[in-house]
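ping. complex inputs:
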Amino acid sequence: MLLLIPTFLIFTFTVFLTSFFFLLLLLHHYRPHCIHLSNSFLSLQWLDLSHWVEPPRRRPHLAGYSDNMTLKGAASQACAACKYQRRKCTPECPLAPFFPPDQPKMFQNAHKLFGVCNILKIVNSVDPCLKFETMKSIIYQANIRDKFPVYGCWEVIWQLQYQIMVAEQELQNVHKQLALYRQQHYHHQQQQISAMPDYVTSQLELGMAPPNNNNNNNNNNNNNNTISLLNHSTPQPYNDNNAIPVTQQQQQPYSNRSVDDAYTCAYDIESKENITAANALWAQNPFANNNSSINDNNNNAETVQSELGVSQPLAIEPEDVQDYDELHPFFDTIDDRQSYIDSKEAYDSSSSDESFKDTTKSSMDHAAENALKSAAACFSLTGVKLSVS
Amino acid sequence: MASSSSYSSSSCNSPCAACKFLRRKCMPDCVFAPYFPPEEPHKFANVHKIFGASNVSKLLNEVLPHQREDAVNSLAYEAEARMKDPVYGCVGAISVLQRQVIRLQKELDATNADLLRYAGDSCNRGTGRGPHHVGQNSGSYNFSSPYDPYGDHRNQRSSGQGNM
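pong. complex structure:
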């Protein structure tokens, strides 16, 4: 008997809960706004009905219910906009392509900042081919505003401008250091060039070719670098005056004007780049060419930077290849001279009245001497001096 | 305080730009009065056209009182940008700045590589050793750009292409 009472109580309580649950179902179907009160009440209970804030057709807790079903049983899923507004999502819904149902937060942000009417007004005011880009920019702006409730896109612009400023300062420092290194390199090569002519002159007098660079890599590199420096113009150092005007803007956080100037500069920079169809819109932007001086600076900046960008690869090119090409004519001249000397000597020897043997012997001697000379050309200075002596 | 003086002047003399635009009586507790003076009617007109007065009012109520002026100024800037460029608004400027950051980063990497090469050559000259290859520095000035407008890093493609 004592056991029957608690059992009866449990059974009664269960029946009460079931009936209340059924009543809730009916209320949700006919009086949607009542759900909020019921949710707040039920959230205090052990049952979690937070998903009840969704429109009636979304009932994931019910077995067998599919998200693809609408009120009329259509196959298309309601977009996030229609879901939020609790209305039927028709195939002609203008917001459906931009607000997928699995990203409700995206629409909530856009709705919070702009509102549905304003979004549709903006989207309908642009060309149909630009609707997608317009909507993406609206969504992005709304997300940024959600992330930074006070400053919104200002925050992003300031951070990017700061990054640009820091990067430009680094670039200036690196260019200065690079110019210093190049100067030192040039001076070192100049010293080597000043030392070279005496040796070269003496070798030329003796009919010897300068030492072949293949034997001594260091000398080879130095000679190559010397000749390359003589033949190539050094890249222009980074000009501080042509810094991008965006970084010269004074940061004034509580004013529209400084960010507006940066906005103008950003547009000007964009208009000077190699534009595609999308960028052509930037060029047509009436706001883009308000400041002619900034345009000129940007022109200079872009020109300098483009030239710098073009000149940099030339500077980075391996100098060995071109120097080898530059050295070829020099060695060819020497070789021709060598061959001329040989031929001359051979001619002189052949034109003499000596006997054949003597001629042969002298030619052989000459050949040997020439061979020795050419062999000496392959050796260093020390070897040549020994052969001469 | 300038805001209080403008607040008192607006309440006594003339309604704020918002109430003037909406053609309603400017109450003493008008939320727009401190930030939309009657001398700048275009400011509220732009904000109202793009965002709507109710949305702006909700946004102002969500931020702290000392941040409301900055919030209004940022909204005014975004509204003006959207008026001038209905397609991209202020996002266009962000995209341009991002491309600039990427371009500067590439230039820095190339210049650093050049610098390392010269530094390596000068070291070799000093020590008398043979030349050795110096690794290219390609990551020390990696400025991350987390604010990719479209979330697919299309801005990191080669410059000159229309990513937007």
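The first helix of chain A runs from residue 4 to 30.
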